[in-house]
Amino acid sequence: MMPPNPPAPLWRRAAALFYDLMFVIALLMLATLILLPFNGGQALPQTGVFAWVYRAYLLLWAATYFSIFWCIGGQTPGMKVWYIRVILPARGCYTTALLRFLGGLVSLLLAGIPFWLAQFHPEKRSVIDRWLNTRVTRSPKPAD
């Protein structure tokens, strides 16, 4: 039996997130482009109810990006580049992925403190990972 892959270090997770943010920004630009014809090609309002609906719309696009990649292959493009993978439970994958995404946002809003604290856990699992029974591991590099 092969030993399990070791937990992914924080620096790899951060590098993968940075890489994925480039994709997410491009995706959000396209999502905004879809809305422009409905506003006469003008910039979208930055205040009022519509601004909050627009932010929720963008958040939904970002959540979809991560959820689909995590559930289909366990890796976003950034995670693939940095050889890390998220292991999700088989049941309720999309629900778990969505909760993991929202937990990650909360962790980032808390200045990443939950991510730093995860480095002291024996399996380097954050509170969200333990709660949702997920883990982020190193992926073996493919043989040349």
Structure description:
Helix 1 (10-35) crosses helix 2 and helix 2 crosses helix 4. This protein has a two-stranded antiparallel ribbon with strand order 1-2. The chain starts with 9 loop residues before the first helix and ends in a 6-residue tail after the last strand. It has one domain (10-36, 44-138). It has six helices and two strands, in the order H-H-H-E-H-H-H-E. The model has no long low-confidence stretch (mean pLDDT 92). It has helices spanning 10-35, 49-72, 77-81, 93-109, 113-118, 127-132; strands at residues 84-87, 135-138. It is mostly helical and 144 residues long.
Please state the CA-atom Rg, rounded to the nearest Å: 17 Å
Beta-strand segment tally? 2
**Gross geometry:** elongated
Task: Compute the separation of the termini in Å.
Answer: 23 Å
Strand line-up across the major sheet? 1-2
Helix/strand class: mainly alpha
Oligomer: single chain
If helices are DSSP runs of H or I spanning 4 or more residues, what is the number of helices?
6
